């Protein structure tokens, strides 16, 4: 289930949800252009535990200066933050659908949970930063 013919929780969704805002300055509402402690390329794996969303998604995203960039052909908008302590708080949106993501980055590894109140799906995710 998802947005139109594409599922809400796609590799781009959850991965982008996870990484959508790795800026310590953003946590205070202040934009930051400095390199963030969580910058890099991440391989993300998203699992659905409940609901009718696809069971597993995989994707790659880039975090630069604390901000997440998604592929140009991505069909969702990601927004949120990863604070300096590694706390993840993000949302993915497309049309009237949303997926909320929470978790923690520690070193090169990250993990957490996600849920979509609009699609009634939920699950967990994990990610590894390369390099």
TrEMBL record:
Highest lineage ranks of the organism?
A: Bacteria, Pseudomonadati, Pseudomonadota, Alphaproteobacteria, Hyphomicrobiales
UniProt organism field: Methylocella silvestris (strain DSM 15510 / CIP 108128 / LMG 27833 / NCIMB 13906 / BL2)
Q: What name has this protein been given in UniProt?
A: Uncharacterized protein
């Amino acid at each position: 289930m998802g947005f139109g013919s594409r599922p809400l929780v796609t590799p781009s969704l959850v991965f982008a949800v996870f990484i959508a805002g790795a800026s310590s300055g953003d946590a205070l509402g202040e934009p930051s252009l400095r390199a963030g402690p969580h910058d890099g390329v991440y391989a993300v794996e998203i699992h659905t535990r409940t609901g009718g969303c696809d069971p597993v998604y995989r994707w790659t995203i880039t975090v630069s200066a604390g901000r997440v960039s998604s592929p140009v052909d991505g069909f969702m908008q990601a927004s949120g933050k990863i604070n300096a302590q590694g706390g993840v708080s993000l949302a993915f949106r497309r049309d009237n659908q949303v997926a909320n993501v929470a978790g923690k980055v520690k070193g090169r590894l990250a993990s957490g949970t996600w849920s979509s109140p609009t699609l009634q799906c939920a699950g967990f995710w994990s990610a590894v930063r390369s390099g």
